[in-house]
Amino acid sequence: MQIAEPLLAAIEELSKLPGIGKKTAQRLSLHILKSDNETVASLVKAIEELKTRLRFCSRCFNLSEEELCEICKNEKRDKKIICVVEEASDVIAIERTHEFNGLYHVLGGVLSPLNGIGPDSLKIKELLKRFESEDIKEVILAINPDTEGETTALYLARLIKPLGIKVSRIARGLPVGGDLEFADEATIGRAVLGRIEL
Amino acid sequence: MILTSIYLRNFRIHKDTKIKFSENLNYFVGGNGQGKTTILDSIYYLCTTKSHDTKTDSESVRFNEESFELGGVFRGTSENKIRIVYSLKDNKKEYLQDGKKITRSVDIIGRFPVVLLTPADHAITQGYPGERRKFIDSIISQASGTYLKILLDYNKTLRQRSSLLCQMKENRRNSLSDELNAWTTKLVQSGKEIIEHREKFVNEFNGFIKESYEIIMGKEEVPAMRYFYFDGMSSSNIEGKFFELLDQKKEEELKRAANLVGPHRDDFIFEINKLNLKDFGSQGQHKTFQVALRFAQFFYLKKTTGKTPVFLLDDVFGELDKKRSIKISEYLREVGQAFITLTDFANFSFLKRQENDMLFQINNGTVDYA
After folding, report:
1. Is the pLDDT of residue B346 over 60?
2. Do residue A158 and residue B164 have CB atoms under 8 angstroms apart?
3. Cα A9–A11–A15 angle (5° rounding)?
């Protein structure tokens, strides 16, 4: 079968993206081909600007257009409290809630010796430095409650607590508006353990 | 839960087998290698998505064919059609419940509880501790999804921690000791939960073993199961003891780059009249104990899950004397539906066939109603 080389190249490149297989890549390529020039140009620009305009905030390693990200620069945020997360996508998730008004620190992953990821591969040293240069009173560990995430939280808690800083981990429990009967046993079990007095 | 029918297509020796079952006892009779056990295994597949023996999916495809398919209809409060399709070419297996694809194993395990008694059960009472842990873990996992999750979490922690111990051994780096502490704490946290679950289970399960054993053997012999953890240094303060033992073995763990303390090293001890079965039991006692364990598993799961498990008995009467065989066949009446393989029905005249029981003659992968 003969396929035009530019199309083949586009399919190849697109299928390298996570969650995109050969067939989806082909559909996307053909869709782009059919789109007008303006649409394609703005797509290309958006992709390019991701790389050229965005970088990591030098303080919290969140995505940023400048040296410091919008959150670190914002004077209205509570500078005494840091929320530690795995990835920049978690910052977006928490920001969407509008429930948290402190600062962030993005670790860039979790501890996983099997994959060769130790504390040095994560932004942990940088986090500890922030305790020296900033006036932090509390740290919230908002790391995924899986095996590696929980261990990373344990590791950080042991490092931070001796510094006299309050450390907490986000609660695990039932989703809001969720039905008790549809939650799995492990989640309900944890939710009962972590119950709150009224 | 009643299994009303199954079909096997290109599954090992079976080319196209369809069977309708009795709600009571179903006997499969045939010589060696005719496909009796394969029928039990196909039922096991439908309940767990896996084979009970070590055969892989690709080995289960009939010679010169490209795929196999299994299907069955379970009737409980509602009816569920289960279908498993495996294709050799893609090495891909699909599990469908009422036409819907199910991918997560936690959604399947325990859905249709199954109990299988096989000649390989000798490993439970006579083999290595790992066999006993597998047996116990499979029962608790079928009864509790929470336990299964903790177990998976614990196993992952073990792999991560041993990988870290390896790195520490190679690099002799003490800077990793903070990291090791974190993994150790994690190990203790989920390990403690496993020990607590197992302890609670053994307490409860003992009653079921006693009852089953008594029905088969009478009251002269009293069976028991004991949970043996921390090399016998069990303690009411599990967490404290766990940390203490880990501290004692610290050097050795680093030297051997292995996890040396925890429930992955536990054992379960079976006793008859307070004597260790492994050391003092006769062959007959071992076999009787294995049978009693499976009956106990059946009634335990029935009680805790509220669902009647599918009960499969592969060649159970082969090694037992007549007296015990009669007791077991009577006991099966209390089970309800069961699936039993026999090498030759004529030798088992004591198995009084009742009206609703079904007898299938299996010959080279084909089934005849007898």
Report:
1. no
2. no
3. 120
Alpha-carbon radius of gyration of chain A: 21
Please tell me the distance in Å from A155's CA to the nearest CA on chain B: 5
Inter-chain contacts counted by CB atoms under 8 A, chains A and B: 60
CATH of A5-53, one of 1.10.10.10, 3.90.226.10, 1.10.8.420, 3.30.70.20: 1.10.8.420
B144/A152 touch (CB, cutoff 8 Å), yes or no? no
pTM of the model: 0.83
Of the residues B140, B185, B253, the best mutation for testing chain A's interface (the one with the most A CB atoms within 10 Å of its CB) is: B185
Which residues in chain A touch residue B178, judged by CB atoms under 8 angstroms apart? 119, 155, 158-159
pLDDT band at residue B316 using 50, 70 and 90 as cut-offs: confident
B309, B277 Cβ separation under 8 angstroms: no
Report the residue of chain B nearest A159, measured CA to CA: B178
Cβ B146–A185 below 8 Å, yes or no?
yes
Q: Could A151 and B157 be called an inter-chain contact, meaning their C-beta atoms sit closer than 8 Å?
A: yes
Angle at the Cα of B116 from the Cα atoms of B266 and B279, rounded to 5 degrees = 45
Q: What would the pLDDT profile of B186-196 be if each residue is shown by its tens digit?
A: 999 999 999 99
Contact present, A94 and A84 (Cβ < 8 Å)? no
Maximum separation of any 2 CA atoms in chain B, in Å: 73
Q: Which of A112, A158, A186 faces B178 most closely, judged by CB atoms?
A: A158
* Torsion B273-B278-B279-B283 (CA) sign: positive
Can you tell me the ipTM of this complex?
Answer: 0.76
Domains in chain B (CATH in brackets) are: 1-113+307-370 (3.40.50.300), 128-304 (1.20.1050.90)
Compute the distance between CA of residue B29 and CA of residue B344 in angstroms, rounded to an integer.
6
